[in-house]
Specification:
The complex is a heterodimer of chains A (511) and B (371).
Chain A lengths: L6 E10 L2 E11 L4 E6 L5 H8 L7 E6 L2 E3 L4 H6 L2 E4 L11 H6 L5 E2 L2 E2 L1 H15 L14 H14 L4 E4 L8 H16 L3 E5 L3 H7 L2 E6 L2 E7 L5 H9 L17 E10 L9 E9 L3 E5 L6 H9 L6 E6 L2 E2 L5 H8 E4 L3 H5 L6 H5 L10 E2 L2 E2 L1 H15 L16 H14 L4 E5 L7 H16 L3 E5 L3 H7 L2 E6 L2 E6 L6 H8 L4 H5 L1
Parallel strand pairs in A: 3-10, 3-11, 6-9, 9-10, 15-22, 15-23, 18-21, 21-22
Antiparallel strand pairs in A: 1-2, 1-4, 4-5, 7-8, 11-12, 13-14, 13-16, 16-17, 19-20, 23-24
Helix pairs in contact in A: 13-14
Chain B lengths: L1 H36 L1 H12 L7 H27 L7 H18 L7 H28 L3 H22 L2 E2 L4 E2 L13 H4 L8 H18 L1 H11 L1 H7 L3 H24 L16 H11 L4 H20 L7 H14 L3 H26 L1
Antiparallel strand pairs in B: 1-2
The chains are: A alpha/beta (511), B mainly alpha (371).
The complex binds adenosine-5'-triphosphate (ATP) and magnesium ion (MG).
């Protein structure tokens, strides 16, 4: 008898208008293993998992769960079969408590009344058993992204799922949270649960997975045993060419100061203390400056202040000699700021607009794109076609593809294309490679360096320590709203960075 | 290229069939009401309803449909514009009244105006007054985040009582307790429609309404302002990020909405039918009918032209079923049930989606079992 798999997908075909998202894909997941799914942006990973979770119906193919052929017509069927999924974008109700969210759709009743106490007990039991620390009474809107993810995991464990799908769970987490998550996932596998784990980060896959299945353009390329493979082999199979993991940078030619921040203070109305506390720094032409730090130390607020999304409470911001502290967002954009935002769905895109409408988001009103107030859509289409080509944005219907239907990584590439093409003096790039595949990351890093070499100023924010160390010329480490270090990454070790990020000031380290 | 247009077609086709189905459900309810009231006469009455009385007096009925469609088309267009910016304008009733009053007032009092300006200027004034009336809730929403549904409803009451006292103070015809009649020179031109459709009140208003719907469609879909308007309706954070003035866009969108609805009010009362604004304390129904028309049209300004004509068609048909012995109240219930059930379009569209998914799932099971 052949081996009985927890999940067996055979010959799965799924097409969307204009594309075969899954082209005869097969996937076998053993019981109790951690099986990674790797592939370029738009390779069809999320689609394949959505099929397993019953959100899409394949046109052909067979799915077997624990050896039995099944038809999964919706998430309810999937749940009944013991399949649970943590989505790329969480599906939690912000104004409900953690407990309410976990029981949502499967509420425990006692004599016709919602019985939250029993539920809470069960949740606490599971939470202790797997080390998933949460506060059962906290509101979702008040907890960190990392804790929200633990809620999503508890949600599927509460339903006693034993096949767990994680769609890019680490893309939104800080390195510390990723460590914790990996521990949790290992624990779950040790309990005999089967895990499918989607990630673009090869290090993570090497660390956590037993086997890996690689997809490219909708087709399965190979399934490998992780201990017997290398990062290089995986990435080559995935993108079809060799990928360079190091960033090549030319000699630095420092120019004039583009951005000059003095004594910036950010304190939103709801905050009890200054989230950005009197910081000053400059960014010059020809340099990539990176703001690093553990998430939540004022980096995001600094960016909101610089780009005009939030008002500042103190200090001045000067761009090319012009005081823009109080300028509107539009004014700043025109004066020379491009901004790749942290949250691509909230700020970066209008999901129900198509790609070309999103590409002209910062140009639609400019002469040339508009005449007597009439938008030149032919020109928008042309421009979008060029950017699709240049930035390798994978779409199904070209410029008319709805942004919502694009894969997460390709949405990101579209934003990057739009912002870099603004050709601004200052490019603010917040987590620019979040959710991108290794090939795309290499490309984006090259583009950032190209901006620097063309004499632009680049201000990056990243939680990814490797990226911070490789790409930037100078690193500003933030801790509790203050800049605690301003260092050259070439002369700094990862260990030192860790200390700065924990709030140890530079002077103290040397002393 | 081929694929693109096919995708577009299936989209608008799904929208259209949801609208048609909603209309059919409304008609079915109408039939049930008729059956309950008077089973014997129900079928003939229903036939009259859905043939719009065209069988009886075709030309007059067509003319009446055009006349009746005019104000509700403007209301539908007004609601649709606001909807595109995710602004739910419930203030149609008040804006309609304000526009009607200003239109009538101008038509009666501004005798100094020469020639066609006698009716053109009051129409423009009516539209401006509607914009102004909608300005306040717009500003409260944009700058003080006051719920626009509540503020527009309050503005409706304000409009009703204000118009009542203004009528009494200026252009009151106490014998009928309504506004005075409009002089012939200031009524809307008939453009020969009275000859084409004798006995009806058809006039230039229908052409104005259709032209404005087309204009609104162009503005929403082709211009920078329309781009901003839709963007704000879809994602206001992204608007902020892109430097679009989302507050200004919200205010302008509801002002346009108010202007169109007010213009609808003026077009209705300046038709020279002898109809005046009654000094009542009820809200005009057109504001709410506009919501149904907009929803039935999937909030498309071009769709509004069709759905307004459809609702007018039923309203006119409804007037004729009195001849089958149904009292006026029943007629009103029947036509309003069609109008309000049309607002189910959205529900039906969602239902369509789930059905399609289920059907696809079944289909796969089937083909696989067959193999
Ligand atoms: N609902 C949809 N309608 C149309 N096309 C879709 C839809 N969902 C996905 N696609 C297309 O199918 C392809 C595969 O998308 P999918 O989201 O599975 O990619 P992915 O491998 O998860 O990529 P990423 O790493 O960027 O998240 C993409 O080209 C995408 O544009
Ligand atoms: Mg994905």
């Amino acid at each position: 008898m052949s081996e009985q798999f927890a999940v067996e997908m055979q010959g799965i075909v799924k097409t969307f208008p204009g594309i075969v998202a899954c082209d005869n894909v097969s996937l076998e997941v053993r019981k109790g293993e951690i099986h990674a799914l790797l592939g370029e942006n738009g390779a069809g990973k999320s689609t394949l998992m959505s099929i397993l979770f019953g959100m899409y119906q394949p046109e052909a193919g067979v799915i077997k769960v624990n050896g039995k052929e099944v038809h999964i017509t919706g998430p309810r069927d999937a749940t009944a079969l013991g399949i649970g999924m943590v989505h790329q974008h969480f599906k939690l109700v912000d104004c409900f408590s953690v407990t309410r969210n976990i029981v949502l759709g499967d509420e425990p009743m006692k004599r016709g009344v919602l019985d939250l106490n029993t539920a809470k007990k069960k949740i606490m039991e599971i939470s202790e058993r797997y080390g998933l620390a949460v506060d059962p009474d906290a509101l979702i809107s008040d907890i960190t992204v990392g804790m929200q993810q633990r809620v999503e995991i508890l949600k599927i464990l509460y339903r006693e799922s034993d096949i767990l799908i994680f769609d890019e769970p680490t893309a939104v987490l800080t390195p510390q949270e990723i460590e914790e998550l990996i521990k949790i996932i290992r624990g779950l596998a040790a309990e005999g649960k089967s895990i499918i784990f989607i990630s673009h980060k090869l290090d993570e896959i090497s660390k956590v997975a037993d086997r890996v299945t690689i997809l490219r353009r909708g087709a399965k390329i190979a399934t490998l045993d992780v201990p017997n493979t290398t990062k290089e082999e995986m990435s080559e199979l995935m993108v079809g060419r060799k990928v360079s993991f190091s960033v090549d940078k030319g000699e630095q030619v420092l120019g004039d100061v583009v951005l000059d921040v003095k004594n910036l203070v950010m304190k939103p109305r709801t905050a009890t203390k200054n989230l950005v506390d009197d910081i000053s720094f400059q960014v010059r032409r020809g340099e990539i400056v990176c703001i690093a730090g553990i998430d939540g130390n004022g980096q995001s607020e600094t960016i909101y202040g610089l780009t005009g999304i939030m008002p500042v409470q103190g200090g001045t911001i000067t761009l090319n000699g012009e005081d823009i502290t109080k300028a509107t967002v539009r004014h700043r954009n025109l004066a020379g700021i491009s901004h790749i935002p942290e949250d691509r769905h909230k700020y970066g895109l209008i999901l129900d607009y198509n790609l070309q409408e999103n590409i002209i988001l910062k140009d639609y009103f400019k002469p040339g794109m508009q005449k007597a107030s009439f938008i030149n859509f032919t020109k928008a289409e042309q421009m979008t076609e060029e950017l699709i080509e240049k930035y390798d944005v994978r779409t199904t219907l070209g410029p008319k593809t709805s942004a919502r239907s694009m894969s997460g990584g390709n949405q990101q590439k579209a934003i990057i294309a739009r912002e870099i093409e603004q050709n601004s003096d200052l490019l603010i790039a917040v987590q620019p490679t979040r959710g991108l595949d290794v090939g795309a990351i290499e490309f984006v890093h090259k583009q950032l360096v190209a901006q620097r070499d063309a004499g632009k100023a680049v201000l990056m924010m990243s939680l990814e320590l490797d990226e911070v160390m490789d790409v930037s010329d100078r690193v500003l480490v933030m801790f509790e709203g203050k800049i605690v270090a301003d260092v050259d990454p070439k002369e700094t070790t990862i260990q030192q960075m860790g200390l700065y990020m924990a709030g140890v000031r530079k002077e103290e380290q040397h002393a | 290229m081929l694929k693109k247009s096919r995708k577009l077609n299936t989209d608008s086709l799904a929208k259209l069939s949801a609208s048609v189905l909603a209309a059919l459900v409304g008609l079915l309810l109408a039939l049930i009401i008729l059956l309950v009231c008077d089973a014997k006469n129900a079928m003939p009455g229903f036939l009259t309803l859905i043939t719009g009385g065209i069988r009886k007096e075709p030309l007059k009925a067509i003319g009446e449909i055009l006349y009746q469609a005019t104000p509700i088309m403007m209301c539908g267009a007004g609601i649709a514009v606001a909807f595109k910016a995710s602004v739910f304008n419930i203030g149609g009733g008040g804006q309609f009244l304000i526009g009607a009053f200003v239109g009538i007032y101008g038509a009666i009092k501004w005798e100094f105006l020469p020639g066609p300006l006698r009716w053109i200027v009051p129409l423009i004034a009516a539209a401006l007054s509607g914009a102004l009336w909608a300005f306040l809730p717009g500003v409260l929403k944009a700058f003080r985040n006051v719920n626009i549904i509540i503020s527009t409803i309050m503005m409706n009451y304000l409009a009703r009582y204000m118009v009542n006292s203004l009528i009494k103070a200026t252009i009151f015809f106490s014998a009928k307790s309504e506004t005075q009649a409009i002089p012939a020179e200031a009524t809307l031109p008939r453009l020969g429609l009275d000859k084409l459709f004798p006995g009806s009140s058809a006039n230039i208003g229908i052409f104005i309404s259709i032209a404005i719907c087309i204009l609104i469609w162009v503005i929403i879909n082709k211009t920078t302002f329309g781009y901003e308007l839709r963007a704000c309706g879809l994602n206001d954070s992204a608007c902020k990020y892109a430097g679009i003035k989302e507050k200004r866009t919200i205010v302008v969108s509801i002002m346009i909405s108010g202007a169109l609805i007010a213009l609808g009010g003026a077009l209705m009362y300046m038709a020279g039918t002898g109809k005046g604004i009654k000094v009542y304390d009820t809200q005009p129904a057109e504001g709410f009918t506009g919501i149904s028309i907009s929803v039935l049209a999937g909030n498309s300004p071009l769709g509004v032209i069709l759905s307004a004509l459809f609702i007018a068609f039923l309203t006119v048909g409804g007037q004729y079923i009195q001849s089958h012995g149904f009292v006026k109240e029943i007629v009103n219930i029947v036509t309003s049930s069609v109008i309000y059930l049309s607002a189910f379009t959205l529900l039906i569209r969602i239902w369509f989606d789930t059905m399609a998914r289920k059907r696809q799932a079944k289909h796969i099971q089937h083909t696989e079992k067959g193999e």
